[in-house]
Amino acid sequence: MNVDDLRAKIRAKHAASVRQFRAAVLGPEGIHGPETKAVNGRSPFPSISHPSVTDRHAAISVVGDVAELAWLNENPNLTGFVTTLSIAGRHKLLGDRMSLPSGECDAWISEIVGDDLLPFVYRAGTLSGVAGRASTVYYNVFMDADKNGVMKPDGIDHPQLRHLSEL
Question: Is 9 helix (H, G, I), strand (E, B) or coil?
Fold first, then answer.
């Protein structure tokens, strides 16, 4: 299945909880910032968990975080925000970490951020943990001071940061 087909499957099965998670991370309308107040430049960490849509033995969890770019990059001249979303898989019965297909990871993140912010999503890297395979995948969405999506700002350089369209 391609990412669009997987998004449709996610939407059909989990639309309400994805919408609630999107509001908790990105704001009530899915844009313009979280519903929760930032503390020391960061918001609390909302999360969501569901069965995988590609592996009946796996469950996924996604955690969201919003931080000011100045805090993230330790550069007070940077304005705006970055939303970081991490997705990880676990075996539903054993609880062990599992790798998820990159297409499923991209589909969950795409469905969570929605079409308005999708052009501003970057994969930010992975942590390996299952026989050297990726077990947690990180994504960033950059936003300006008004919390509108923007392309990666100048001054944000990370070797693994790649626009979703490049994958």
Answer: helix
